[in-house]
Amino acid sequence: MKEKMIENCPHCGTKLSPWQIVLLNVDRVLMCKKCWYRIILDMYDDGQKIEKNSEEN
Question: Measured between alpha carbons, how far is 49 from 47 in angstroms, rounded to an integer?
Answer without folding.
Answer: 7
